[in-house]
Amino acid sequence: MKGIIQNVIDKLLFFGKFKNIDVHQAKAMIEQGEVMIVDIRNPEAYNQGHIQGAVLVTKNNMAEFIDKADKSKPLICYCSKGISSCLACLDFKKAGFSMLYSIKGGFDAWKKQISVS
Questions:
Q1: DSSP conformational letter for 73
Q2: pLDDT for 5-59, tens place per residue?
Q3: DSSP 8-class letter at 50
Q4: Of 94, 95, 109, 97, nearest to 21 (Cα)?
Q5: What is the DSSP letter of 32?
Q6: Could you give the angle at which helices 2-14 and 84-94 cross, rounded to 10 degrees?
Q7: From CA 113, how far away is CA 58, in angstroms rounded?
Q8: Domains in the chain, start-ordered, CATH in brackets?
């Protein structure tokens, strides 16, 4: 199953739906400012730690987030391992966001290499 999912992600990357970036690229973008950060994990995981400035977006508040967000700003999306965030990028793309990024390895990779809040 994981191979099939990775194959789909590779094809989406090829067609430019979003970019898969590593934690250091994400950190650099965040430090430059003018970027939105979306955590799509569950509330419990978010409360245990998240990237500073990240907004928790779930099925319950996604429509509200999409309505209020500035779609012209870059959006960095992450999950636990970096797979679900790729799929979420498709939803954000359909909603009109144009600069979409998913963190390779998700929050697990971030925790290993960068500090958390």
A1: S
A2: 665 665 555 456 789 999 999 999 999 988 999 999 999 999 999 999 999 999 9
A3: -
A4: 109
A5: H
A6: 40
A7: 25
A8: 2-113 (3.40.250.10)
